[in-house]
Amino acid sequence: MTGAMTFCRSLAMRAFAVATCLAINGAALAEGVVVRDARGREVAIENPSRIVSIGGAVTEILYALGLEDRIVGVDTTSVYPTAALRDKPNVGYMRQLSAEGVLGLNPSLVFAMQGSGPKETMDVLEAAKVPLVLVPEIHSEDGLLEKVRLVGHAMGVDARAGCLTTAVSNDLRQLRELRAKVTKPVRVMFVMSLLGGRAMVAGQKTAANEIITLSGGINAIDGYDGYKMINDEAIVAAKPDVVLSIQRSRDSLDAQSVYAHPAFAMTPVAANKTFISMEGLYLLGFGPRTAAAARDLSIQLYPSLAPQAEKFSPAAFTANCRQ
């Protein structure tokens, strides 16, 4: 009889323990993770198992954190790693999204870089029951690190995000050491396009301005923020030493078009044949590879720094932050 009673008490205690464990886990699941996004709103995330990633930098971070198996869709700017667009459904260009294309993938969470659109689509996504995290697009070292932390926290992998931010921080430190060796900064003009002979160029508070600064250059345009069409007189007055642009699948700006342009022909750009073109996400995406991109740009701006730059081995490429 005593043995039976002991056995019953043991079963009761185990049942109580199991019930308590389930209750605790259930409460944790119900509470989930809460993040504050670019809108200043708190977004509660319960189930980050099916992700639509809108923005190449976000997709790159998710892969770096070993979370690619949770991605069910990406946008066309998600060109790195190449497996993203090859293996995942494509929801279109981040500024020309359709709500049906995103929600049709049955996501449990949507990441979208600040600036995604159009507004009508974003309004529908915000009104849907699927959590939408708008990731801040802050073009700075701190903004880059915060982007990694936000994505990692939203996905419940803070330790992995800490690993990646440490690696990126080390890369940025090495970049600062390289940049300190620049004795005579060159004037760089980022040209997005030449339309009808008029140049669309980057001013202050842009990704282009920040990457130029990180690489040790000076933005030749300092009179306004954002991107703007400028006339020939403004080009000549800016006196750029270098023109920087991005590679596109089509309609890429090329060196000969710049050198033959009447205004650029009157600047050091044409005299010195200094035109640089780099892949867009790598140069302007402000993802984990940004320090490496700035290093590569710095070498092209200042060839004499190449020996020092060879010692700079970006940790973001080699750090194992996937588990």
Structure, described:
The protein starts with a helix and ends in a 5-residue tail after the last helix. Helix content is 45%, strand content 17%. With 323 residues, the protein is an alpha/beta fold. The protein is globular and about 60 Å long. Strands 7, 8, 9, 10, 11 and 12 form a 6-stranded mixed sheet that branches. The longest helix is centred in the first third of the chain and has 30 residues, at 2-31. Residues 1-31 have low confidence and may be disordered. Helix 6 runs antiparallel to helix 7 (158-179) and helix 7 packs parallel to helix 13.
Layout of strands and helices, then pairs:
Layout: H1 2-31, E1 33-36, E2 42-45, E3 51-54, H2 56-64, E4 71-74, H3 82-87, H4 99-103, E5 109-113, H5 119-127, E6 132-135, H6 141-154, H7 158-179, E7 187-195, E8 198-202, H8 207-214, E9 218-219, E10 227-230, H9 232-238, E11 242-247, H10 255-260, H11 268-272, E12 275-279, H12 280-284, H13 290-301, H14 306-309, H15 315-318
Parallel strand pairs: 3-4, 3-5, 5-6, 7-9, 7-11, 11-12
Antiparallel strand pairs: 1-2, 7-8, 8-10
Helix content: 40-55%
Separation, N- and C-terminal Cα atoms: 51 Å
List the helices and strands in order: HEEEHEHHEHEHHEEHEEHEHHEHHHH
Oligomer: single chain
Strand content: 15-25%
Can you tell me the overall shape? globular
Profile the largest sheet.
6 strands, mixed
Low-confidence stretches: 1-31
Number of distinct helices: 15
